[in-house]
Design goal:
Largest sheet: 5 strands, mixed
Order of helices and strands: HEHHEHEHEEEHHEHEHEEHHHHHHHH
Strand content: 15-25%
Number of strands: 10
Number of helices: 17
Strand order of the largest sheet: 2-1-3-10-4
Structural class: alpha/beta
Length: 338
């Protein structure tokens, strides 16, 4: 058998060669949305070589909302997904035999909102009664709307939903076919701005400021797959944390990594989107004090009670939906002032 010179020298001097690329664990990730600023934490980590260095052959695909990501992970088409906390609770309640597990909290605060036009007469949550809201079926803001409605005294039955695909949501509002839209606040504002609807024409009713004190996006897995691939999940989350820190340290470089995945990225717009996500929903006072993905039992019990009551589903225990078994060491999770 003829061995390459590098291998012969390694044997002679007792050097252990690194694992070949073929030994990597394939992992498929589906995002909650398109390759935009807030999603650059994963593209930045991928382009840094973090996943490859840890033996993960990562494939990343865009998603079409939390419902889409949840269904793809639940079906086994993807190993890991990104989805809204409330949407995961709702899914697990409806599929008790096929539950998904949250293994990381990406957004410590919720970015969900209803954005309505002032000309529709909406100034406060109660004004949404009798109005039309555009939103995809299964989208997280629509799933969580009953919670928002109940807390704010809105009769959800009096709100008409205009079901549209995600790419048509903002256009439906701009064309006057709906009075407002429900979804990720920054996505809606950016989409309406692109359609020449100015910010001063809009009313923002964000969930977090109106009593919905729940986390936002999370990383989800099927527990059986995660148990069988524990190291891969741990390494994936380690790279996720690295990616978050990269977006904080050098946001311009992080946005640049999106170009490989979405050649149409507008760097200026996505820098604004990333800044919004970083400062409003990812790096919160809680994260600064306790680190990334810190789950306080008291806070999360209250969040689960709110979600379950508002969605009229059985309240799960924190341990039924969350697992900290795959988190990186606390030293990696710590937030350091930058």
């Amino acid at each position: 058998m003829n061995l390459p010179l590098k291998a012969l020298l390694a044997i002679a001097f007792g050097v252990i060669l690194p694992a070949v690329a073929g030994a990597q664990t394939p992992v498929k990730l589906v995002l909650d949305w398109a390759f935009e600023g807030p999603q650059s934490m994963w593209t930045a980590a991928a382009e840094s070589g973090c996943f490859t260095d840890k033996g993960i052959k990562l494939g990343i695909d865009r998603g079409m909302g939390s419902g889409d990501a949840i269904s793809k992970v639940a079906s086994g088409a993807y190993n890991i997904g990104v989805a809204d906390f409330g949407s995961v609770v709702a899914y697990n309640a409806a599929h008790p035999g096929q539950k998904l597990t949250i293994v990381f909290i990406v957004s410590d605060a919720s970015p969900l909102a209803v954005v309505a036009t002032k000309k529709s007469g909406v100034a406060k949550p109660k004004d949404l009664e009798g109005k039309r809201l555009a939103g995809p079926q299964g989208e997280s803001a629509r799933v969580m709307f009953p919670a928002f409605a109940k807390i704010n005294g809105v009769d959800a039955a009096k709100v008409e939903w205009v079901t549209v695909t995600p790419d048509l949501r903002q256009a439906t509002v701009a064309q006057g076919k709906a009075d407002g839209a429900a979804g990720h606040l920054n996505t809606i504002l950016k989409g309406l701005r692109a359609l020449k609807v100015s910010r001063d024409e809009l009313v923002v009713l964000d969930y977090a400021s109106h009593g919905v004190k729940v986390p936002g996006n999370t990383v989800i897995v099927k527990e059986e797959w995660a148990r069988a691939n524990k190291k891969a999940v741990q390494d994936f989350l380690s790279c996720t944390v690295k990616g978050i820190k990269m977006t904080i340290d050098d946001p311009k470089a992080a946005i640049a990594t999106l170009k490989k995945y979405n050649s149409m990225v507008d760097s200026t717009i996505e820098l604004d989107n990333l800044d919004f996500a970083t400062n409003m929903i990812v790096v919160t006072p809680n994260v600064k004090q306790h680190g990334f993905s810190f789950v306080d039992a008291t806070r999360y019990e209250a969040a689960l009670s709110m979600v379950a009551e508002s969605l009229s589903v059985a309240k799960p225990a924190v341990a039924d939906i969350w697992s900290g078994d795959y988190l990186p060491p606390k030293s990696e999770l710590a937030f350091e002032s930058r």
